[in-house]
């Protein structure tokens, strides 16, 4: 089992390198910086810290106790299937679920608050897909992985499915000018998903597919014009800080107005100050004073 995780990690890191290279050679939007706004928030807090913490919650605190209590996995409902059949089954059924839940999140004001963070970035790239509200991940990954374990799938299905999610997630958000032709009716890619991240009214309720584009074509929500979006992200102001993004989903506030309070100011500028200090130590650079408007969005 350990070696499967090593192999999936190597494949994932290689895929990241390939996509970054393709973004450099064939950009969808030219001039997008690699260290774009929110890069460190997405990498450190969403990709590493949140994923790790939620993995413990989802597997150890929800799915395992559920299985221990009801003993579903002992029924071995899919155990006899070949591994590829199990993977295919869970990829397709979960993708069908995620299409409808995603669509529901765009229509329901309450659940929109668990999804708006994902749309908050104005510079969409390979890493942008990682920005997902903790509650959204908690719901979606519990619904994704609970059936895999409860139906008695082979243990390798979990890391293989997680790898497929990551590879596809990176691909659909990548800033690559892909022209996949008829394949875009079947396989979802940046052509349609980058439009989903645009701040254009015509796509507020379109392009909900994640892996298979045919859900959008089948259920009448596909949007694929011949041009590229002009505006990106949300049409309203959204906090840049990870924790404030989560607070904002519960209680609306104006980040700028909170800066009047010294305690909040201290918290708000703590990480940029630490980062500046680290840069001075590591690269022996002179500490630069960062104006409020261009504060590092870590
Ligand atoms: Zn969305
Ligand atoms: Zn997305």
From TrEMBL:
Task: Print the keywords alphabetically.
Answer: Membrane, Transmembrane, Transmembrane helix
Q: Which domain of life is it from?
A: Bacteria
Q: Where is the Fatty acid hydroxylase domain?
A: 88-221
One GO BP annotation here?
lipid biosynthetic process
Q: Name one GO cellular component term.
A: membrane
Would I find DNA-binding among this entry's keywords? no
**What name has this protein been given in UniProt?**
Sterol desaturase family protein
Q: Indicate whether DNA-binding appears among the record's keywords.
A: no
GO MF: iron ion binding; oxidoreductase activity
Give the matching InterPro entries.
Answer: Fatty_acid_hydroxylase, Sterol_Desaturase_Related
Q: State the compartments where it is located.
A: Membrane
> Which residues span the membrane?
6-22, 43-63, 83-101
Q: Name one Pfam family in it.
A: FA_hydroxylase
